[in-house]
């Protein structure tokens, strides 16, 4: 019988955000953590759940708190919000300005329709 993989996309997004915040490539994080870059990609992009040992290696290499990984209910962030933060962290200042203008225009439109 094949062993099924455990999936946790939230964990992958948290690790990806931390890596991108520190402007690390997969290879750089791999070198710092001792976890293969291929496996890091599987965790971040497919939600593969690493062993406790591998997760510890990544957390230590990124110098981040382990709390969000073990106490996710204590966090107010939802998955869509975390994904949005990751995407925004990859944007240039000009792209951020454009996205902000779009959001502001959307909210003005939404509020206008709400009051009608």
Automatic annotation (TrEMBL):
CDD domains in the cross-refs: HTH_XRE
Recorded GO CC terms: cytosol
UniProt-listed SMART domains: HTH_XRE
InterPro entries in the record: Cro/C1-type_HTH, Lambda_DNA-bd_dom_sf, TransReg_Diox_bact_type
Keywords: DNA-binding
GO molecular function, one term: DNA-binding transcription factor activity
HTH cro/C1-type domain span: 15-69
Protein name: HTH cro/C1-type domain-containing protein
Organism field: Anaerotignum faecicola
The organism's taxonomic lineage, starting at the top: Bacteria, Bacillati, Bacillota, Clostridia, Lachnospirales
